Amino acid sequence: MKMKQLIATRTLQGVLLASVWFFVQPASALPRIKVLATGGTIAGAQSSTADAGYKSGTFSVDDLIKAVPAMTNLAELSGEQVANIGSQTMNHEVWLKLAKRVNEVLAGDTDGVVITHGTDTMEETAYFLSLVVDSDKPVILVGSMRPATAIGADGPANLYNAVALAADPQATGRGPLVVLNDTIHYAREAQKTHTTHLDTFKSPNRGIAGVMNTGKAYFYNRGLTRTSSRAPFSLEGLTAANLPYVEIVYSYANLGAGPVEDAVMRGAKGIVLAGVGDGNTTDAALAALQKAAAQGVIVVRSSRVGSGIVDRNVEINDDKMGFITAMELSPQKARILLMLGLTQTKDLQQLQKLFTEY
Fold first, then answer.
1. Could you say which of 130, 248, 271, 329 would form a disulfide bridge with 175 (CB–CB 3.0 to 4.6 Å)?
2. Edge-to-edge strand list for the sheet holding 323-325
């Protein structure tokens, strides 16, 4: 064979071998993301697009995944229906079922979890999970303000962002995150602030965690996150029946002792005051709360105003009255922390420390 032919033949063989090698190599594996669905507006449907009302949880988790086919470019997806309710009816049973399932899934080869959820109590579920999930892997809660059948439904874009965020290594070690309307929130900070607007979620105290832009996450800060992947509270042996009963009493002008006394009579182990201003309330309610604290009921002062710190011994002598203060936590999140805290201790100093740390 002539030299030129030999070189050409070997060059062609090399190209063919290189091409074969390229095509037989497996594509780099996509992250494995599990979508755990609980219902909510994101899975809701209207009887017609002209109706303001809708039924939550009409569509299944598989329907939600199929509705956004581009997500298959981001991750290897699988779905599971944990519940199918509007989040206004969220309860302890579903919380515990969801939390245990998240821990089970993340203990395996799943790289992250996306939880579809109604927006009404999403901030509470996210905060509860932040206290009981035993993993550094991403946990992303997502919902929508418009049902799936609405004109301009926001669910598909929100879900796409949630999967992109769950697949992003930057989301590791930040605890559960809430993502809606291209905005990322830490579980501790997130609050729903408007009944219908798409930008309803805010983080008024410490600011948002970051934003999503063209499917990419841009984080602004680390947030107040625990330093260990171990959850501060264990789910072992925990059931809805043995979670301590904690009630919220909402303060308003002319509030009497009745709501506090009723909570004590019904067996409350703890009472969270959603106080006016800096966690204050009427003389009558204060007297009832001090009496409840003397009887062993744990009383936590928080504020109804939506942001700010309720610190110790400001306006009210917490040391004298035997109260705890919620610091930055909203009344609904203070209830969750107190409820879990009471599974470990009734010591006031130890409980106050929890409100400082979490």
1. 130
2. 246-250, 270-275, 298-303, 323-325
